[in-house]
Amino acid sequence: VQLQASGGGLVQAGGSLRLSCAASGRTLSSYAWAWFRQAPGKEREFVAAMRWSGGNTYYADSVKGRFTISRDNAKNTGYLQMNSLKPEDTAVYYCAAAQGLILSDLRRRSRYDYWGQGTQVTVSS
After folding, report:
1. Which residues of 52-73 are buried (b: 16+ CB within 10 A; e: fewer)?
2. Given CB 3.0 to 4.6 Å as the disulfide criterion, which of 50, 85, 91, 97 pairs with 57?
3. Does position 3 have pLDDT exceeding 90, yes or no?
4. How far is 80 from 69, CA to CA, in rounded Å?
5. Main-chain dihedrals φ then ψ at residue 83, nearest 5 degrees
6. Would you say 51 and 78 are in contact if contact means Cβ atoms under 8 Å apart?
7. Which residues lie closer than 8 Å to 26 by C-beta, 6 or more apart?
């Protein structure tokens, strides 16, 4: 599985961005997939996750109510809609995918096998 993240950029606080994660190599119908982010000098942290087959979505407390994870099966592409952006959202955002994750694993970056290259999001105050 190859993942290609895109859609990052520079935005003012309060603005919106939509990140995309295009998957190739195989369909993700049996995968869980997620977004993580890494700010300078900090560890990579969980942002949002869902099973590609649908169902519940999961978010970090810091983005709940502002970010929405989704996917388009026909395009084999996932998205992260980010609204009401804050300067503290500034980071490199990575998409990731894995098979066979149980619920408690969805937030653990070590459990993901496939990673996109990252896309920079910068939020100015």
Report:
1. beeeeebbbeebeeebebebee
2. 50
3. yes
4. 5
5. -115, 165
6. no
7. 1
> Residue holding tokens 């998957």?
23
| Cα distance between residue 97 and residue 28, in whole Å | 8
Q: State the pairing for strand pair 67-72/77-82.
A: antiparallel
Q: Which pair of tokens denotes residue 60?
A: 């970090």
Residue with token string 């910068």: 122
Over the stretch 30-44, which tens digit does the pLDDT of each residue have? 889 999 999 999 999
| Joined tokens for residue 90 | 């500034």
What CA–CA distances, in Å, run from 44 to 7, 29, 40, 71, 97?
19, 25, 10, 22, 15
Q: Is 90 exceeded by the pLDDT of residue 114?
A: yes
Per-residue pLDDT, 52: 83
